[in-house]
Specification:
Layout (H helix, E strand, L loop, with lengths): L33 E5 L5 E6 L5 E8 L13 H8 L11 H8 L3 E6 L4 E8 L4 H12 L5 H20 L2 H13 L13 H6 L2 H11 L5 E7 L3 H12 L22 E8 L4 E8 L7 H12 L5 H9 L3 E8 L7 E9 L5 H17 L4 H17 L4 H13 L7 H9 L3 H11 L5 E9 L12
Parallel strand pairs: 2-6, 7-11
Antiparallel strand pairs: 1-2, 3-5, 3-6, 4-5, 8-10, 8-11, 9-10
Helix pairs in contact: 1-4, 1-7, 3-8, 9-12, 9-15, 11-15
Length: 456
């Protein structure tokens, strides 16, 4: 994402993480068939034809994100994403976006902890433009020193705006930093400010050469596309790019947490904020489905347990919620959060959340709660197929993190099998005091500049 006003999944602010696009599953219509191809240079191509509307989305996913960064150079993937719009030897600065807009399309990019992706959405007869231009910037990116300096300042301002000047975002960032001591999920996608200050254009050039290669990428196209027409074009444009070196694997594994960790963030703010996080398994683990259902029951929507108790009944909080970031390459966090109403104590909310957690461990959820949660998850899964973009996005991220899109086939049946007993078991297994990281925002009053002396 290359400008402050454009969409990005690089987590840099507040509850954007809570509303992550990847918490909603997508589905494939029964009469649709995914076609998968592997080019000689290692580039994977996945095509899903859907001729219901004359549009299509082109996405290219690279297996590199904040997870692949090293201490001292955090934020490099996000900054490189910005620089991918600064021109190549064939297309000058800004020309990529102008061509897309001229042809009635839109485009952008996003960086996450596990991936970096670029996309265009077009009328389907313009799709060849994506093939031509994305293949060009995979190999011919210009990394100019002056443009780098300018864009680095843009990213630093983005960090100030969305994290440094946002007390809630600052708490979320600190909780992740405290919860992960070893694994690179410790660091924010946008990077630490000192790392951005120290970064050089040579750092970006090295990252580009290491990770932006066909054998580290996946193309996903969904929509009104003809495989026999588009695949030869992909082979012609991308097939001539030589494979790069095999990128180094991420070997870090977060050790088991042995005791509660607490952080307090004192910032100028109006009201307190609370975040309570637990280490949990990611996608591919047998407990992922029970955790997904549990998230829906406890923290998702105005009918969830937390919302009813703390916003409606006790009116302790102005907002509450939670998230289970299941779709990730490595074990993740399940967290709860809430913003306090005026004159309410953050300890009230923390105590109340812990009471609800103990209730989950010791009391089965009702039949109605369980069935409602399953229905909501299944409905979101099915309705997702109405969007070419989100179908492509789901396929892309599943391929990039290594589990593959075929896990979609078993998702709904697995959700349907979740029992009350499983919900109690996973709550007992993971929602323990020693596995907990708590973050609290303590508001501080803004100091008035100057002072009034006698006679004023």
């Amino acid at each position: 994402m290359r400008s402050l006003g454009r969409f990005t999944t690089a987590f840099v602010g507040g509850l954007q993480l809570v509303m992550s696009l990847l918490t909603t599953e997508t589905a494939l219509a029964k009469d649709q068939e995914i076609k998968e191809f592997l080019l000689d240079n290692g580039l994977k191509v996945i095509l899903l034809e859907d001729h219901s509307a004359p549009t299509a989305t082109f996405q290219i996913w690279y297996k590199v994100g904040a997870r692949n960064e090293v201490t001292g150079r955090t934020g490099i993937c996000h900054l490189l994403e910005h620089m991918m719009f600064k021109g190549t030897t064939r297309y000058g600065k800004g020309e990529f976006s102008r061509i897309i807009a001229k042809n009635g399309g839109n485009e952008n990019a996003f960086t996450g902890k596990d991936y970096t992706a670029y996309f265009e959405r077009f009328a389907s007869d313009r799709l060849a433009l994506s093939v031509e231009m994305e293949s060009d910037r995979m190999q011919n990116l210009l990394l100019d020193e002056r443009e780098f300096q300018l864009e680095r300042d843009v990213v630093k301002e983005e960090r100030r705006l969305r994290t440094d000047d946002d007390p809630v975002a600052a708490v979320v960032e600190e909780v992740y930093a405290a919860a992960y001591k070893v694994h690179p999920y410790h660091s924010p996608v946008i990077g630490w400010m000192s790392d951005l200050d120290a970064m050089t254009v040579e750092d970006l050039r090295s990252c580009y050469k290491r990770y932006y290669s066909p054998n580290n990428g996946t193309i996903v196209i969904v929509g009104d596309v003809n495989t026999e027409e588009i695949l030869p074009k992909i082979r012609r444009e991308f097939g001539k790019i030589p494979p790069g070196p095999v990128p180094p694997r991420v070997l870090s594994k977060e050790p088991r947490q042995m005791g509660e960790r607490r952080i307090c963030v004192k910032r100028e703010a109006q009201l307190p904020f609370l975040m309570v996080a637990y280490h949990v398994p990611n996608i591919g683990h047998p407990d992922e489905f029970a955790l997904e259902v549990l998230e829906k029951i406890v923290s998702q929507g105005e009918s969830s347990r937390l919302y009813r108790k703390f916003v409606y009944d006790t009116q302790i909080a102005s907002f509450v919620g939670g998230d289970y970031a299941r779709v990730s390459a490595d074990p993740t966090l399940f967290y709860f959060y809430g913003g306090l109403r005026p004159d309410r104590d953050v300890n009230e909310l923390e105590k109340g959340i812990q009471e609800e957690i103990e209730r989950l461990k010791n009391e089965p959820v009702s039949d109605q709660e369980l069935e409602k949660a399953k229905n909501q998850i299944e409905a979101a899964f099915i309705f997702g197929r109405d969007s070419n973009f989100y179908q492509a996005m789901q396929i892309g991220i599943l391929e990039t993190i290594g589990v593959g899109y075929r896990v979609l086939e078993s998702f709904v049946p697995s959700i349907r099998k979740v029992t009350k007993e499983e919900l109690m078991r996973v709550a007992r297994a993971f929602f323990t005091p020693e596995n907990r990281t708590v973050g609290v925002l303590i508001p501080e009053k803004k100091e008035k500049s100057g002072s009034s002396g006698p006679g004023f």
